[in-house]
Amino acid sequence: MDNQKDNSKIKVCVGLSGGVDSSVAALLLKQQGYDVFAMFMQNWSDAETTLHGDCEWEEDRFVAEMVARKIGIPFYFINLSKTYRKRVVDYMFDEYAKGRTPNPDVLCNREIKFDAFLEAAERLGADYVATGHYCRKEIACGTDGKPLQTPEGQPVYRLLEGTDPGKDQSYFLCQLSQEQLAKALFPIGHLLKKEVREIARQAELMSADKKDSQGICFIGKVDLPTFLKQQLEPREGQLIEVFDAYYSQNEQYRFMEETMNSLTEDGKARMITSYISEDKELPAAEGSRLVPEKLAALSDSQLRRLSSPVDYNLTFQTETYRSGKHHVKKTRYKENPFGRIIGTHEGCQFYTIGQRKGLGVGGHKEPVFIIETDPVNNIVYVGEGHTHKGLSRSCLRIAPEEIHALRPKLLPPVGGLGRFDIRIRYRQPLQKGWVLMRESGAYVIFDAPQRGITPGQFAALYKEGEIIASGPISDERQNKKDITE
Predict the structure, then answer these.
(1) Active site (catalytic) residues
(2) Quick one: CATH architecture of 7-229?
């Protein structure tokens, strides 16, 4: 917004959470002369699922109210628990039950903060809703430098990464529409986190030194297994470790390897990710760049299969033997060169691809990760080490009906391809890759293999720091028959 305008006639509702970010957002807007009021939303009231007892949201509300009083703005409270349950929590339960991993923060922004909460704010006279997200918004311009407009004559907006690379939250807003973005303000997107805290300290705001929330959007820090077990019944299943030898004889993995090799300049594609965490990578693996002409020549059926994970069909036979002095007859599994059963789990709906903690697996030199879940047969497959072949993939699909384009004209046309930066999880460094648009969806092929591509998570497409489009990663396990025919 232009600070030279008379902002006093513009009414802004700040979603005040009790945290330092939304507090400073409210303070800055007040200093810029806007007619500001605050509203705290309660999205959850079940104390049994939170890690800090039944008063966490009440404590946050108290801090938020004290901040509003300090700044000198009206404070309101709204209970959106029923709406949140219907639009976010029920969806989460449904996705986990199907063995997928949803992102509740993305849904909360799309369905709650910039929908139900926005509607409530507008009933109180708000022209805009402001949040403490670390992202930026600006009007898009054409090559002639003139502002772009929608067919209805409204400005076209760009959603950009926040200035602080360690706190950028644009990914969480990847599902917003142009209509929602038009009503949104992000007052701290141009600031670093340390600057935000310093502003709060200088203003003596109660939230200045409050720790950042680590929990689900506007619920608080949640014990996720307990949360899920409210509706999803535990069901014991096998925990199977997959050995490296399995991939040499697996038809799908050979197809993936041969196809990726055929798409490079020298026939040597990388198949193992170098990514370990946000701040650590393995030494770069060998592999040549992808050739766009070869990518464009891929058929829809090839792309569909390339986006499909490896299918783990491991079977284990038993044998009887006699043990001890009394030669007691016992049963055990025969050795299998491709894997072994190493334990049990409580239900694959409680686990996600790439997960390391909470498996209860010991006796390995390197960390053990979940590489796949089979919700139909209730099996969780794991692999040892960061370089395990089952942990890396190079291709994903977004179903055509799931593609959400914030700037549709910047996407390739059907049959075309384009160069993008891609993010498949929050705080992941942007990854380079190609997007191929087909009738069967948007296919993302990464320059380097990605770790833990997870059905249900959102893939966000960026250009020069701007979100262009996004969509949930398709669960190709449900489409094996279509892929192989």
Answers:
(1) 108, 217
(2) 3-Layer(aba) Sandwich (3.40)
